[in-house]
Amino acid sequence: MRRGGLHRVLLALVGLLLFALGGSVLAVGLGAPPPSWWIHTGPHDVLLTRAERTHWRGTGWWWPAVLAGLAIVVLLALWWLTTILRRRRLTEILIDTGDGESALLRGRALESALAQEAVQQEGVAHAEIQLRGRRTTPTARVWLQLEPYVDPSTALNDFTAQALTRARASARLVSLPAQVRLRAVKHRAERVT
Fold it and tell me: Which domains, ranges and CATH numbers included, belong to the chain?
């Protein structure tokens, strides 16, 4: 499972848990009979009794510890939210046109061109490209599916020498680092006679 999928599953589980807890508190508050495992006895029961609220009042460490713990929980939740909302793909690339101006190239266009050129290589069945990084210094993540008869090192050399070099040159980039992952197309074993 990819990282984004894991975030969505965790977020859905936390949401379901909070929805069930909030719904049950609302139902008991509106008069529904509480289940046997419920921590309160009815709709007029309070969350914390007076004795529970004032039990730690005399100690100097209790409330700062509670506030620090809640602050850590809030900061972790905000960090998690920013990692979920942060864009993974590069939407546009800033290209120096050479005349003191710059142009914008859509990231999807360069990804599509790279994928089409990779598939035209001998022995590449499928290609997926994802651009990341900054607008001025993009990086590429590449997944190539190879036919069973292709030597992986040859396919990698051809991809870097042809498709990646042309993409870098056409976008007028100083460099276009790439992380390439190779895998073979699933096929039946060949019968040897």
Answer: 1-47 (no CATH), 92-184 (3.30.70.1350)
